[in-house]
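User: Can you model how 3VV sits in this protein?
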Amino acid sequence: MSEQATNGQTSVDEEYEHHGGFPKFTAATPGPNFGPFIEAMRTLQDLAVSIDAPDDVLAEARAQAEALAALLAPYEAKEGEATGGRVIGLPGRGSLLMLPWMIEKFDAEGVRSRGVFRRYHLGGNAAAHGGVLPLLFDDIFGMTVHAAGRPISRTAYLHINYRKVTPLNVPLVIEGRVDRVEGRKAFVSARLTDEAGTLLADSDALMVQLLPGQQ
Ligand SMILES: CCCCCCCC/C=C\CCCCCCCC(=O)SCCNC(=O)CCNC(=O)[C@H](O)C(C)(C)COP(=O)(O)OP(=O)(O)OC[C@H]1O[C@@H](n2cnc3c(N)ncnc32)[C@H](O)[C@@H]1OP(=O)(O)O
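Assistant: Here's the modeled complex, given as structure tokens:
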């Protein structure tokens, strides 16, 4: 986290400490099995939404899933301490909730990320579910204000234009930036394109810096 002063009085670290108990996020460096474990979990998610399996296979899958949950349950950690979401070098920063995309650029000028929507993200007729795109945009906006050195902010609104059907399993690119700042308000925008530059969706959002005590 940057120590850079944001308004001449308060550092970003101080903002984190005083705003609603947000944990201070630092990068995690898990062992070599964490990335492959998350990828295996993503494959399971793809299969869980796409299989048509007989019940005896489901009984075995259920037993194995319950055994896996029992293995992992003792290691549950609180927000800011769990590994997922804090591994910059992994798709989706190692969080299963996030799209499995890789950050390519992360600075005050903006954030760029690249990846695919998978079977798990299917909406209808081979296209990504319309509800998954706001997750991608909201995450890029969170990273964009973070990379711009802004204090912890929350999304006040997020507007999306769905310009073209977003395909599964095709490499796509999203780029976000801060357009302008008015006090606590950062107006941000982002574009989702394919690798040829065809616009699939664009979004603009308002990220409001939290006041002391706000959650
Ligand atoms: C080193 C490795 C570590 C790895 C990590 C690296 C990357 C880290 C990345 C990320 C870090 C995590 C960051 C998380 C971020 C996630 C973002 C989200 O998804 S947040 C969840 C969804 N959003 C909510 O739940 C908000 C719910 N709403 C609220 O809490 C409030 O409404 C809030 C705070 C947004 C504003 O409320 P008020 O009471 O503080 O302030 P008021 O006066 O209402 O608004 C302030 C200004 O904004 C305008 N405003 C507010 N809402 C507006 C709206 N919907 N439309 C237009 N203007 C609005 C108002 O008109 C006002 O403007 P005027 O100052 O008068 O000019």
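A couple of observations from the model: The radius of gyration is 19 Å. The pocket of 3VV is lined by residues 25-27, 86, 88, 93, 138, 142-143, 146, 152, 154-157, 184-185, 206, 208, 210-211, 214 (CB under 6 Å).
User: Helpful, thanks.
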